[in-house]
Design goal:
- The structure is a homotetramer of 143-residue chains.
- Chain A has 143 residues and is α+β, with helices and mostly antiparallel strands.
- The first copy, chain A, has a single domain, classed as Hotdog Thioesterase (Thiol Ester Dehydrase, Chain A), CATH 3.10.129.
- Helix content of chain A is 20%, strand content 35%.
- Chain A is built from two helices and six strands, in the order E-H-E-E-E-E-E-H.
- In chain A, strand 5 and strand 6 form a beta hairpin.
- Chain A is globular, with a radius of gyration of 16 Å.
- Chain A starts with 5 loop residues before the first strand and ends in a 6-residue tail after the last helix.
- In chain A, 41% of the residues are buried.
- Chains in contact: A-B, A-C, A-D, B-C, B-D, C-D.
């Protein structure tokens, strides 16, 4: 379970568990989403005091592979890593892992597009975002 | 924010927030529910390794009063207290509070009925439950 | 199952069902909420093309009594009725019922407060709302 | 919006809408899931009277591309098509579309693995399932 500089712990709620007794497949995306936002807060890219209407990031594409079922009470941590910075989009790799055993429950990639709500169009990733993410992830500037 | 011997901290997820930017009214019940289960685990009344099909507790009635809107990032803790033990039912008082300011966001009462899944009928609260809850809550035996 | 001039049919989703195989207690409030909004649309009090940020209605209090468990596939309809119009608040009675058998799965009351987002304070129920609701529900003006 | 022999209409609930006013990315998977189950019921492969514990189908992998935001009130229909039948797995193609305009809001592929809960292991797709799906989808037997 290496390769992630940021993990966010998450609690499996009874309300996340489906009729088969496991974390529901849709709930994994809720876990991904919450950890991504906490990652942006951690990097100083999003101030939770501001409205979510100002967050110019749109989810364009998600791939997720489910490896093992998650039970209520499992000590989950969700890894987040920006694996690619494009011009107007970025790829975020994510993993739902067991904080004790290190087991991987699910892993995936999320394509985010930076969006300007004022002009209602996609926009280049802001320079400040690019710098902070590159520094945090030790990414080279290849866009 | 006194009167609770048990609090469970909970994270407000982006997925809990509705179009008006606040914790959705239904999500409060998800917070209540998760904290109730953690309360039962804390008292040794429910082993999360077992199936939820064995938990003989049915929600019969809920009253909740919403005091203040909850925003993403609020440091929530949910208080749980058994306030009355009947013969086949119990009343659990709950509060959604701010762990820092002590502000109350919502409070309510949940009526739980003990249920025997084998006979498919309500059943008296088991003696072991009664003793543990009375001891934890300093409740007198008035049923 | 009389006493409601408005029913909204709702589909029980797999995602609404919890680990015990029933419609989750929190999901009932999601059913209540969706049917309330459809009721407001039906009465011409809310235009869904507008933002939900303009709907000046805040949920202040909910009481719900659970009568019978709801299974996936149950033909649900949710009844909505304004049972009392106050000055700055109204009480909405709701029921989750079986559209075929008429069985009541749950019933409750929701207290709504009219709210002015511009002044950030509660406000009297607009006259237009009052008239339309009184006409639809054959309510007398007793406030 | 051709290529689907099965569509299931779904209602966008207020509870599905997130703080940015759109159908949340995780909720799309709830829409996919509900329509897949209705597809199985339609083909006679799942009897909703039975427990979901008997449905030996596990979600192994999902890819979803988000094309356009979905607003509350949008007339959604979800298309479901089995696009490939393997030995122990199948690929289901899905689309979230507008029933009026035909616009595609999201599309994706879901890999399902047939699972025997008694032996707790993956199992070949039952012959009865294979025949019914091939007939419904006009799929050739290529496994």
């Amino acid at each position: 379970m290496s390769g992630f500089n940021f993990y966010h712990p998450m609690e499996v709620r009874y309300g996340d568990i489906d009729a088969q007794g496991h974390l529901n497949n849709a709930s994994f995306l809720t876990f991904f989403e919450q950890a991504r936002i906490q990652y942006l807060v951690h990097l100083g890219l999003f101030d939770p005091q501001h409205s979510f209407m100002e967050v110019g990031v749109i989810v364009a594409d998600i791939h997720i592979a489910y490896r093992k079922p998650v039970l209520w009470g499992a000590p989950i941590q969700v890894g987040v890593r920006t694996s690619k910075l494009g011009n107007k989009s970025m790829i975020v790799s994510q993993v739902v892992a067991d904080a004790k055993s290190g087991d991987i429950y699910a892993e995936g990639e999320v394509v985010l597009v930076t969006f300007d709500y004022k002009t209602n169009a996609s926009m280049p990733i802001p320079a400040a975002w690019r710098e902070k993410i590159q520094a945090f992830e030790s990414l080279e500037d290849r866009h």
